[in-house]
Amino acid sequence: MAFRVDRSRTIITAMILGRGITAMDVAWLRREVFADRMVTREAADELFAVERAGLANAPEWTEFFVEMIVEHVVWQVAERGVIEDADAKWLAERVAECCTNNALAALAAALGEARRAPGWLIAEARSRTASGWPGVAAATRDAMPALMSGDDFRFQSGQSAALA
What we know:
Structural class: mainly alpha
Number of strands: 2
Distance between the termini: 58 Å
Number of domains: 1
Helix content: 55-70%
Order of helices and strands: HHHHHHHHHEE
Oligomer: single chain
Strand order of the largest sheet: 1-2
Radius of gyration: 16 Å
Strand content: under 5%
């Protein structure tokens, strides 16, 4: 007998109240809630709420969180691979609210996968990496080599500019 899985925000919120996300929780989220890889703004906000709660989450949480945020802001948009200004503003606000390495890693990964993004968002990411958050180098090193190495990145205007 099949049953309907509740994919509402209350499920993710319940995990916050449980005081942590386990590896099993992440597997369940992947299999049941995000099986179709559709990440609505509401769901992305809930994922940030979990991150902001500062819980003792399993290591699998980081990969899942970053992957779902990138899916939302880079791939589930009108022009795939392009971070538009409104989405960039939303992402920057959520990262600032969380002030965690995982949130910064999501920002860096989004910029790393995007074909284009507003120049101010790149500057915001660079500013955050220089702000002294503990572990920031590790959070961004693998997620966005362009941010750390000074490689070129295509700005919203279509012009290329060096980050270094």
